[in-house]
Amino acid sequence: MKTAVSPRKAPRQARSQATVTAILDAAARVLVERGYAAANTNLVAERAGVSVGSLYQYFPNKDALITALHDRHSRQMDEVMDRAFALSQDLPFDEALQLIIEGVVEAHRVEAGLHRVLETQLAGLDMLSSHEETEARIAEQMGCLLARYPDQVRVPNLRLAVYMLMHALHALVHAVVATRPSGVSLKTATQEIVRMTRLYLSSPPTGG
């Protein structure tokens, strides 16, 4: 039988919303400290200062709770990226590119410890549809961004360029946020990502 991963009910009153927020905040702390396998609803309820019965009013099981946490985290990251794409609309190519990459870095700094756990430990949990939808939306925004600068973007296949950027930026940003070398600031590392990306996009193809 498939485990339910949807919330049991949505909070409507301010007090209920505060309870759900406390539960999700506690779940994030427990997940970062203990990992997915060791996290459980009893511990989350204790950290949130509510009874486990109160937790179950909103979340039928651990996976429903973690899925709600994942969705909240995705929305927070989406807000950062949506703001970056909106601000880039009328900027010159170099400024727009820098703003978008800084946005990607900022988005990955939103509860970075939680993000690492969600990325590394929960790949098999039934929450991937929302993740895929988010990626598809960002890819579409990235494609629209590149299409605005035909004189600067020399990669002939924009669909391929978006694919390369999505995967390259995902790996690089994760690295600079979490494991950059000692003595290298986040600002410096981000500027290097901007430089690498600009060189890729502005270099004409060589050969077939």
UniProtKB/TrEMBL annotation:
Key words, A-Z: DNA-binding, Transcription, Transcription regulation
Residue ranges constituting the HTH tetR-type domain according to the UniProt record: 17-77
Matches recorded under Gene3D superfamilies: Tetracycline Repressor, domain 2 (1.10.357.10)
DNA-binding residues (ranges): 40-59
Alphabetical list of InterPro entries matching this protein: Homeodomain-like_sf, HTH-type_TetR-like_transc_reg, HTH_TetR, TetR_C_15
Protein origin, superkingdom: Bacteria
Pfam family name, one: TetR_C_15
Protein name from the UniProt record: TetR/AcrR family transcriptional regulator
Lineage: Bacteria, Pseudomonadati, Pseudomonadota, Betaproteobacteria, Burkholderiales
